[in-house]
Amino acid sequence: MSVSITITITITSTSTSTKKSMTMRVIMVHNAYARPSGEEHAVRAISDLLESRGVDVAWFSKSSAELAHSLSGKFRALVWGMHNPHSRAEIARLLDESPVDVVQVQNLFPQISPSIFKPCRERGIPVVMRCPNYRLFCPQGLFLSRGHVCERCAAGREWWCAARNCTGSVPKSIAYAARNAWVRISRSILDNVSTFMVLSRFQRDKFIEHGIPPGRIAIVPNFEMVPPRAEDDDDRAQAISFVGRVSPEKGIAQFIEAARRLPQYPFAVAGDCSPMPRAVETAPSNVTFHGFLAGPALDEFYRRTRVLVCPSIWYEGFPNVVAHAMAAGKPVIACRLGALPEIVGDGETGLLFDPDDIDTLTAHIRRLFGDSDLCRAMGEAGRRKIEREFSPSAVYEKLTAVYQSLIKAPTPASPSLTLGLQH
Asked: Kindly report the CA angle at 330 between 325 and 333, in degrees rounded to 5?
């Protein structure tokens, strides 16, 4: 019996003939997730930013959605995550269509795979890998297991992912562990990526701790546009809000517990609830779930927000929801973990609390909800911080500086790395 497998690869060019002469050509590589995520928003925003400055951007993309709901799809995800010759051939053709200055990778798994790096290396094209998570060292990318920060899999101990069943599915945990082990042992990423682009100082320190040389790490945060402030924003801003995927690592359980302790306040959630339908069913009546929102509907949700709560219990890289809230002039209550303290100034643009400290979280909510002047002052401080540090212009300069440094430097034949994660 023969089995026919159809492989669909989307390659779209976003350049237009109306632009003036191009000074740079970049290929964006991204394997989209089965469900919408902040990564899709971030990588598309980067592409739009580059194009708005005259950079020629082409895309090499796939989606996990086509593999997520069948046994054969999951098997292909495992195999292709380690090596996909079809992706390798397709990107080689794309690279040969016209000169390419830089390839920027967002996510390789499961369909694209590190196989695409060899054609880049053969042509002397530098590769930038944007790292919003910790997948180089942790099979599921979060440094999180059973609701707590966990770094057991680093330094070549991926088997912990399977032993602790970190994904909640034994076959999936085994597959993730095997894929990470293969990528580590083969050095297919480490020997072929020119620069690892992280989003915060915290991430940079973690990458160095786990073996990536400092000279191959660049910090380029997300950026955010600051919208005009509507006159009636303060009048409409009544909700204690959570924006993001309703899943354990985002701290939704902590948010709902705070709502349970504060029944007099209205709480609102904007995000895909499918990962945790039970959370919706058991939430108190003062929590309203709006589902996944985007565009004008999401903007309106922020306008109706009095305080945004970001209770994430994993090492967030640079959550878009926090930057968006600050740009909208909203104070943020965030967990004192990962990069969040770099973004949210405690007592300046918001308030911080320690993981699982629900008492302090609820106290912060009471304080801000009851003090409109403090909310306004913190909100305005947040807008100024976004304009100063995370504006499109500021981030564009950081990003293109990374590109230019790689374009001017020759691509080494075989980078030498001594990594703790290889032991």
From this structure: 85
Residues 336, 406, single domain; the answer is no
214 & 69 share domain: yes
Model's pTM, two decimal places? 0.85
| Residue ranges of E strands in 56-191 | 56-63, 102-107, 127-130, 144-145, 148-149
The backbone torsions φ and ψ at residue 105, rounded to the nearest 5 degrees and listed phi first, read -105, 135
From the list 253, 380, 276, 373, the residue with the least C-alpha distance to 328 is 380
**pLDDT tier, 228 (very low <50, low <70, confident <90, very high otherwise):** confident
Side chain identity, residue 392: P
Closest among 33, 44, 39, 45 to 327, alpha carbons compared: 45
Q: What is the pLDDT of residue 105?
A: 96
What pLDDT score was predicted for residue 415?
43
For 32, half-sphere exposure in the C-beta direction (CA atoms, 13 angstrom radius) is 18
Burial of 168 (0-12, 13-18, 19+ CB in 10 A): exposed
Count of alpha carbons within 13 Å of 99, Cβ hemisphere only?
A: 5
Q: Is residue 73 part of a domain?
A: yes
Do 119 and 90 lie in a common domain? yes
Q: Is there a single domain that holds both residue 53 and residue 197?
A: yes
Give the model confidence (pLDDT) of 332-356 as tens digits: 999 999 999 999 999 999 999 999 8
Which domain CATH number covers 364? 3.40.50.2000
Are 247 and 121 contained in the same domain? no
Quote the distance between the C-alpha of residue 374 and its chain's center.
30
Write the CA distances from 147 to 68, 258, 260, integer angstroms: 24, 17, 20
Phi then psi dihedrals of residue 139, to 5 deg: -55, -35
Joined tokens for residue 44: 């598309």
215 CB burial (10 A radius; 0-12, 13-18, 19+): exposed
Give the neighbor-by-neighbor strand order of the sheet with 195-198: 56-63, 25-32, 102-107, 127-130, 195-198, 217-219
Q: Is 245 found in the same domain as 362?
A: yes
Task: Report the domain count for the chain.
Answer: 2
Q: Which domain holds residue 267?
A: 233-389
Is 157 a member of any domain?
A: no
Residues 210 and 318 placed together within one structural domain of the fold: no
Q: Are 114 and 241 in the same domain?
A: no
